[in-house]
Design a protein that fits this description.
By secondary structure, the chain is mainly alpha-helical. The chain contains 9 helices and no strands.
Length: 214
């Protein structure tokens, strides 16, 4: 490995270390209670070193979201590609929704950080450039629910007049509500089981309502 390559790798590792430390702090204390000084201390760096990689606490927060959402989108894309068309749309809809919940069960930090952003975006003071990037990244995962609804309509499982955009946001909101209800409460051993069971029950009602529109 050459000198420049080694330096680039060291910079990348340091940047990842900053994001990892900040992520844990945001989860523990909330966005507004974390300072750059604290991030620097946990990262074992000087405050000035933080600013070599990020311009502000807000940019650090935004980059955490972008990295995590990107990871989720890649995983969701794999699940979508593997299952779409292989099962009835109603079954795949439920399976994909449970996979969505499972991702956050494995990473509760991401769910809390993401929900704080979704509920209070104006308080994050993100730049006009960063905010649209986060919204666009997360919209990609929400759109997959609409694509499943559309596939179901094409196969005549669902009525053709469905508003796919409204449907996908309705399901997305439903899932986040169920995950919020259980992800930070109850025993860990039963948490996943409760979330999956509630999701399947809620989606059965949702899909039954769709089919009655035929």
């Amino acid at each position: 490995m050459g000198l420049l390559e080694r330096r680039d790798k060291e910079k990348d590792n340091r940047r990842k270390s900053i994001l990892k430390s900040a992520r844990a702090l945001f989860f523990q204390k909330g966005f507004h209670n974390v300072t750059v000084d604290e991030i620097a201390k946990i990262s074992e760096l000087g405050k000035g070193s933080i600013y070599l990689y990020f311009t502000s606490k807000e940019e650090i927060y935004a980059q955490i979201l972008l990295d995590d959402i990107g990871k989720f989108n890649r995983r969701a894309g794999e699940i979508f590609a593997a299952g779409n068309g292989q099962k009835p749309a109603s079954v795949f809809f439920a399976d994909f929704s449970c996979a969505y919940a499972d991702f956050f069960l494995q990473d509760r930090e991401l769910f809390r950080i993401l929900m704080v952003y979704m509920l209070q975006p104006e308080r994050m003071n993100l730049s006009g450039e960063l905010n649209p990037q986060i919204v666009n990244a997360y919209t990609k995962s929400i759109d997959m629910f609409g694509r499943i609804l559309e596939a179901g309509a094409e196969k005549k499982e669902f009525p053709p007049g469905i508003n796919f955009k409204q449907g996908q946001y309705a399901v997305w909101s439903l899932l986040n509500g169920i995950i919020s209800l259980y992800i930070f409460s109850g025993t860990q051993a039963k948490r996943a089981e409760k979330i999956r069971a509630t999701i399947k029950s809620a989606l059965e009602i949702f899909i039954r309502g769709l089919k009655q529109q035929s």
